[in-house]
Every structure is written in structure tokens, then in C-alpha cells.
Design goal:
mainly alpha, about 70% helix, single chain
């Protein structure tokens, strides 16, 4: 039981239901206005790619303040598109593809600019992007095999948003990252690999 309690708090994804409850009245109004889940998904992806592109072309420390702001808003966008799909009859096969593909692309776009900030480096950031993609792939496989989409942590999408949002705030506030933050890269890779294993195990257990 103790282990289960620990696992319950391993990922901030567990807070998603509370976040959705706060957004539900607004989502109802958006649905009444004719907004679709796929439109929300695409807008979120376009903004993510635009911010990532801006930071690569112009990696000024102050601009990294966009990352924590957008990471929070993007979580809201993701919650809204999911609620529109599930609760307002907009669920579709195309929406499923868009959700998974745009999430991976958006994550990569927002993570890679940190390779331009010392002491981070491109090889480590590419490893993070690769492993983050594997976590989502492992999560999707549960749905493919009829066991439902898997969101096990400890380094799911919401957790990564918190991590990189905090890093973006540090860069914006101090102009760079402290030397000790180099260790975040290998630690993130270990946690991502652990997440892949957890999602595979969870999918097999449910199967």
C-alpha cells in the first residue's frame, strides 16, 4: 500500500481531473460557440513550434520567459481539446492522430532551444527528446492493444512541462543556468527511461 501511495504522487498528471473541473464551464461555452477539439490541438501545436523557432533564432534569455507561461497555457489547451472530444461528441480518429503527433512535435520544439543555453548541450537534449517520444509511444501502445492510453510517470508530459517551465523561468530570471543544472539532463533521461518501463509494465498488467 505504501508503494501504491508513492506511485500515486509520482506524476503531476494525477492532478489533471481537478484542473479539468476548473475548466469545464469554459469548455461548455467554447463548444456552444462551435470551437472544435481539433482546432484547439492545432493551435496549441502551432504556438509551440512558433515559440521554439523564435528561441532557436533569437535565444535571448528574456524570451525564455515564454516557456513557463506557454507550458501552463498548453496544459490548459490539452485539457480543453480532450474535454471537447470526450464530453461534447467531438471524438474522432483524426483527433487521436493529431493529439499524439502534435504533442511529440510540440515537445521537441520547446525542448531543443535549451541546447543553446549553457550548461545544456544538443546531444543531451536530443536524448531527452528521443526518450520523451518513447514514453508517448509506450503510452499509446496500451490503447492500441485495447488496454487504454497509459499515463504512468515519473516523467510524463505534465512533469516535463513543469521541468522545462522551471528551467525557462531560471534562464529568463538569471540570464543563464547554474552549472549544477547540467546534471538535470542525465537525470531526466533516467526518469524518462523509467517512465517507459512503467508504461510497458502497466500495459502488460492491464492486458
Amino acid at each position: 500500500k505504501a508503494i501504491e501511495r508513492i506511485r500515486a504522487f509520482m506524476s503531476i498528471y494525477k492532478l489533471k481531473s481537478s484542473f479539468q473541473n476548473l475548466l469545464r464551464p469554459m469548455v461548455g461555452r467554447l463548444a456552444a460557440m462551435g470551437l472544435t477539439a481539433n482546432q484547439v490541438t492545432l493551435v496549441a501545436a502551432i504556438v509551440s513550434i512558433a515559440i521554439g523557432g523564435l528561441l532557436v533564432v533569437q535565444p535571448e534569455p528574456a524570451l525564455f520567459a515564454l516557456v513557463p507561461v506557454w507550458m501552463f497555457l498548453r496544459m490548459a489547451f490539452n485539457a480543453v481539446d480532450g474535454m471537447l472530444a470526450r464530453e461534447h461528441g467531438q471524438k474522432s480518429a483524426l483527433g487521436g492522430y493529431l493529439n499524439e503527433i502534435t504533442d511529440v512535435v510540440s515537445d521537441a520544439a520547446l525542448y531543443v532551444p535549451f541546447a543553446l543555453v549553457a550548461p545544456f548541450s544538443l546531444p543531451w537534449l536530443m536524448a531527452v527528446v528521443f526518450l520523451a517520444t518513447l514514453t508517448e509511444f509506450a503510452g499509446v501502445l496500451g490503447a492500441v492493444h485495447g488496454n487504454g492510453r497509459n499515463y504512468e510517470g515519473p516523467m510524463g508530459k505534465s512533469d516535463r512541462a513543469l521541468l522545462f517551465g522551471a528551467l525557462g523561468a531560471l534562464v529568463a530570471g538569471f540570464g543563464t543556468l547554474p552549472a549544477w543544472t547540467w546534471h538535470i539532463q542525465p537525470m531526466a533521461c533516467v526518469l524518462l527511461a523509467w517512465t517507459v518501463v512503467n508504461r510497458v509494465r502497466s500495459g502488460l498488467a492491464e492486458g
